[in-house]
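Morning, I've got a small favour to ask if you have a moment. You're getting the sequence in one-letter code plus the fold written as tokens. Thanks so much in advance, here it is:

===
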Amino acid sequence: MEIRLLLISHASTAAMRAGRFPAADSLAPLDPRGLAEIQAARSSLSTPDHATVLVSPAACARETAQALGLTAIVDAHLADMHYGNWHGRRLADLMIEAPEKLAAWTREPDATAPGGESFSQLVTRTGEWLEALSEQTNHVSQTNEIHNVVAVTHAPVLRAAIVSVLGAAPAVFPRIEIAPLSVIELRYSRRGWSWWPATSR
């Protein structure tokens, strides 16, 4: 069985636009601007019928899926990168308080926020999720049909998925830009996972 996986990054949040890391509980809902972005993008964000829809536990991802008309199953593996002690903090404040740590975090894949997760660790987590998804799908069906999956998650997870599928070094992550409501398409076949062109905003 082949898998067609569409990964969608959630709409922008007030915290993102304010240059702030998300709160640790990620319960803040989308604001009117984020919801308006989704409505404007709905015509270009088409998803296949009869797809399995998965979503990050974060409210911004769940509300993005809902606003797109998707009924999704929460999957903890799609959670955002863990930012440790930087959850809820402003980048501008960290540039003053911990400039060297923040600079390393933006450039080095093994750097972490205090108590947080590195990008390299996120690549590993995402790669394990992709492998489990392919194994689960193959276990369910051995036919040649295409199984469509849609996952609404976070920009770092989309970056990590690209790096994992391409077998690239995690150090390339600063060169991958993922805007809110971007879409990447990954496909799984007997050759393994591959990255396909997809639309983005």
